[in-house]
Amino acid sequence: MSQRGFTLIEMAMVFVLVGLMVGGGLFALAPVIDKARTNQTNTTLDQVENALELFAIRYSRLPCPADGSLASNSQNYGIEQPAGGATTCTITGANAVIPWRTLGIDESYSIDAWATRLSYWPSGSITGSTTLTTGTPLTHSGSTFPTSSGTFMTVVDVVSLQSITPNTTTGDQAAYVLVSHGKSRWYGWSKNGVLQPALRITPDKACNSTPDNCTLGRALVPPSQASFASGGPVGPYPPSASTYFDDIVRWRSPAMIIQLCGSGSCGNS
């Protein structure tokens, strides 16, 4: 008896069906992977915030940022600039990343689940995307920590366009801002010191690269504030709208940092 094999048309149909099954499975798995990466990034941010708190307790100040554009063979790779801290940090605002070596944590904690450096800005003024200042050491008065030259750090919700930081005009509204640039990775630095460019104009995400020139996509922020965007996420991936936002943002108020330091630290008596 002769045996009949598959025709080319039948084989093609099998391949199409298999492809649809695999593709459908991957499509269903994508949200699960995204959720896992978001959870992993939040865990990393928790560890970094703990390290910042311990640093503040020990030195009564927050560290300056490290330079995200440096390669691993650089002497200053992962170290706050200037090393040892100073009144004026010497990192361009867009290059500011968490100084993991200064904090004494493993380099893996400086990178989110999408292989992008965590951006970091300490409190103080941000002037023209050129330098950051840490201001004076921590003091017991949260409203004046640290002394600022008039450009205050604030965090604004991307949906309501309302500030979510304390309402004060006498000092910084955020002690620090810590940012994961999310799944898109836009405006974030790679481990090798390469900046991930934005493939379309997304003003809200751009705020977390150059906060002194933040427009939040829909409303110009007062020039007396250096504003960061938070909230969301907004829009599906891949990004197709200018309002897309996928950053994960952490911040703490000056008063909260002082409270966390406890008695005998950060200027508390």
**Main sheet: strand order:** 2-6-5
Number of helices: 4
The profile of the biggest β sheet is: 3 strands, antiparallel
Outline the low-pLDDT stretches: 139-151
Which percent range describes the beta-strand content? 5-15%
How many angstroms does the end-to-end distance come to?
98 Å
State the helicity in percent bands: 25-40%
Indicate the overall shape: elongated
Give the gist of this structure.
The protein is of the alpha+beta class.
Account of the protein in words:
The protein has helices spanning 8-59, 100-103, 203-207, 254-261; strands at 66-67, 88-89, 96-97, 119-122, 126-127, 131-133, 152-157, 176-180, 225-230, 248-252. It contains four helices and ten strands, in the order H-E-E-E-H-E-E-E-E-E-H-E-E-H. Residues 139-151 have low confidence and may be disordered. With 269 residues, it is α+β, with helices and mostly antiparallel strands. The strands form four sheets. The protein has a three-stranded antiparallel sheet with strand order 2-6-5, with no helix packed on it. Strands 4-8-10 form a three-stranded antiparallel sheet. It has one domain (12-261). Strand 5 and strand 6 form a beta hairpin. The chain is elongated.
